[in-house]
Every structure is written in structure tokens, then in C-alpha cells.
Amino acid sequence: MAELPLGCKFAPSDTEIFIYLDNKVNGHKHPNVKLDLVKELDIYESCPQDHQGLSKEECTYIFATRVGKYQTASHHSNRKTRDGKGSWKINRSSVKSTQGTKKLLTYYLKSENSSGEKEKRTDWHMLEYALEPANAEVKVNEGKVNETVLCQITKGKRYKNTEVTDAKQDGDSSPEDGTGLDKSGVKLMMNKSSQENQQNTAALANEEIILIDFFSGGVENQQNAAAPASEGTVFTDLGSDGVENQQNTAAPANKEIVFTDSGSDGVENQQNTAAPANKEIVLTDFFSDSVENQQNTAAPANEETVFNDLGLDGVENQQNTAAPANENIVFTDFFSSGVENQQNTAAPANEETVFNDLGLDGVENQQNTAAPANEDIVLTDMGSDGIENQQNTAAPANEDIVLTDLGSDGVESSQGHDLPKNTTSAAENDVDLSLRLCTGSQN
Q: Which residues fall in a compositionally biased region of kind Polar residues (predicted)?
């Protein structure tokens, strides 16, 4: 019997089995079929448990001769083993296709016990493949028919259905010649560029954890990582056009955590990060045109937290940040024309909180801020022509609140204030609301 290359497994589909059987019975010469991969064996010599040619661990593929009584319309086979210990019996009716028939058989041992049972079912099963009579050269010898069949014999495996399957349903067959066979006649289990790649990682570690994934176009890449660690944790993913990249990370750590992602046009990038830490946390993301960038960050920290995002035209940028801190929190965002910028910030703090946003023509700028604080809160927004500016502020505070908005022609400015009922009046709380509007703007 021929030896298979290292790492290869002989696992033909139903369609391929009939091709092997056709080559054996009718003498056809398929270029990718090697008949010596299937050994010839007398399966009816003895019971399968005692048979030297059968494997108890893996499937065994054999050519066997089925002997039966020749009749006009059909023939009946004798499936008893010659050692007298039992016989192969058909479990279900035959499944027919244009190529041939497929039968499921189970081996039964003779048994004489107190319950009166004469046979005992074993866990040896056989799938028997036979060509249709019209497709096979049947040999008749002394009134009996000798028919070559191909059998797949397994110990312990239960078959849920016996339908004849086509090679195309296997998913790992090569379409080169329509048979699903490669040049050696063996199917190789190999990944292709269009396959879906998933990585699910849960790694508790005290050392650095690095997940690096490089993919080309059309590949779906998913990384789900939960890695609490005492050292630095680095997640790096580089993708080209058309790559869907998702990173879901929960990594409480005692040291710095850095997430870096560089992508080209058409890349969808999502970063969902929850990282309580005792040191500085930096999230940096650089993208080019048409890139959708989302950053959802919840990072309570004892030191300064900085979020920087630089984008070009057509970039959709969303930053959702909840960061209670004991020191200054600064959010800086610089965008050019045509950029949609949204900042949703809830930042209770004990010191001054500053939100700065500078935009050019055609920039939609939204700032939604809820920031109870014990110190002054300053919201400053400067924009030029055609900028839609919205500020929605609900900020109960014990100190002065100043809202300043400077805009030029065509600027829509809206400011909404909702103070809690326990503040009696704007005058009593010394709240100074200052609105300076240029000519042509609307309140």
C-alpha cells in the first residue's frame, strides 16, 4: 500500500470513492487516482475484531469481493464470516445515486444467552459502495455473481445519515478537475485566503501578552482577548483594504497599556477598551480616507489620561469617554473639512476640565457634556462659516459655569441648560451664561 505524505490523510468523499471504484472495476485511468491507496482485503474471512487487516483506531478503506446468487432482477449476497462467529447485516435500505449504491452495515456476533438472544450487536460498522450494474462489468462464475465493492470500515463510529454526498459539499476539495482530488489523489486540508479566521484568546499571565495578526484582502479577522496582566499588554493588528478588524479587549493591568492599529482605505476599525490602570493609558489611532474609526473607552485612572486622534477628509470619528480622574483630563481633536466629529464625554473631576475643538468649513461638531465638578468648567468652541455647533450641557456645580461660543456668518449655535431643582436661581448661584453671537446667527 502506498505511503501518504506527512500531514496528509486519505479521506475521500462519496463521489471520489465511486471514481476509485470505477477505475478498479472498469480499468479506467484517472490521472489523479492511485489505486494502491486502497488495499484489497477479504472482509468475510473473519469477524472484524479478529481481522489482522483492520484498524481499531481509524477508518480502513478496502476493495472487497461480494459473492451472491445471480438472479434476473437482483442478487442476494452472503455476508457471513467464514469463521462462523457472525455476519454483516444491513442496517438501512440502500441509498442510490447515478453512480451507484451505498449501504450501511453492522456486524452481529452469534450469542446464546439466558435471555434467548441469538445475536449481539457490535460497534463495528461498514459503508459498502457498489457501482450500478449498468456502469460495472459483473463477473458470473458457476451461477454466482462476483462483484467488487469498496468498503469503509470503522469501529465505534455511528453514522447519522447515509445519503450519497457530492465532493463539492466537503468544502476542502480542489475544483481543478471536478473530482475533488489533488495531483496525488489525496485531499489536503489547507486554508485559503477567503476563509474566515477567528481568534478567541483568554490568557491570564504575569508577563507581556502580544497578539499579532497579519491578513490580506477579504479576510475577516476577529480577536477577542481577556488578559489581566501585571506587565505591558500589546495588541497589534495590521490589515489591508477590505479587511474587517475587530478588537475587544478587557485588560486590567498595573503598567502601561498601548493599543495600536494602522489601516488603509476601506478598513473598518473598532476598538472597545476597558482598562483600569494605575499608570498612563494612551490610545493612538491613525487612519486615512474613508476609514470608520470608533473608540469606546472607559479608563478610570490616577494619572493623566490623553486621547489623541488625527484623521483626514471623510473620516467618521467617534469618541465616547467616561474617565473619572483626580487630575486634569484633556481631549484634543483636530480635523479637516468634511469630517464628522462627535464627542460624548462624562467626566466628574476634582479639578479643571477643558474641552477644545477646532474645525474648518463643513465640519459637524457635537459636544455632549455632563460634568458635575467642584471647580470651574469651561467649554470653548470656535468655528468658521457653515459649521453646525451644538452644545448640550447639564452641569450641576457648586462654582461658576461659563459657556462661551464664538462663531461667524451662517453658524448655528444652540445652548441648552438644565440645572437641578436644588439650585434656586441663576443669580443666587452666581452662574454667568454668556452668549456672543455674530451677525446672521440664530439663537
A: 411-427
- Which of 85-94, 134-143, 273-282, 420-429 shows the lowest mean pLDDT across its residues? 420-429
**Whether residue 297 sits in one domain with residue 270:** no
Compute the distance between CA of residue 366 and CA of residue 344 in angstroms, rounded to an integer. Answer: 8
**Contact (Cβ atoms closer than 8 angstroms) between residue 150 and residue 33:** no
Tell me the pLDDT tens digit for each residue of 212-242. 343 433 334 444 444 444 444 444 444 444 4
User: Using an 8 Å Cβ cutoff, are 150 and 63 in contact?
Assistant: yes
What CATH number should be reported for the domain holding residue 64? 2.170.150.80
Is 3 among the domain residues? no
Residues 297 and 441 in one domain: yes
pLDDT digits (tens, 9 = 90+) for 166-198: 433 333 333 334 444 444 344 433 333 333 334
Give the span between the Cα atoms of 47 and 107, in whole angstroms: 8
Contact 106, 89 (CB under 8 A): yes
Residues 57, 70: Cα–Cα separation, whole Å: 36
C-alpha dist (Å) from residue 207 to 204, 233, 320:
9, 8, 30
pLDDT tens figures, 107-158: 999 886 666 678 899 999 999 999 987 666 655 555 556 789 999 999 986 5
Co-location of 331 and 434 in the same domain: yes
**Residue, of 324 and 46, whose pLDDT is higher:** 46
CA nearest to 87, candidates 104, 70, 105: 105
Query: Quick one: 36 and 151 in the same domain?
Result: yes
Q: Which parts of 240-363 are beta strand (E)? A: 244-250, 257-263, 268-274, 281-286, 292-298, 305-310, 316-322, 329-334, 340-346, 353-358
Residue 8 in domain: no
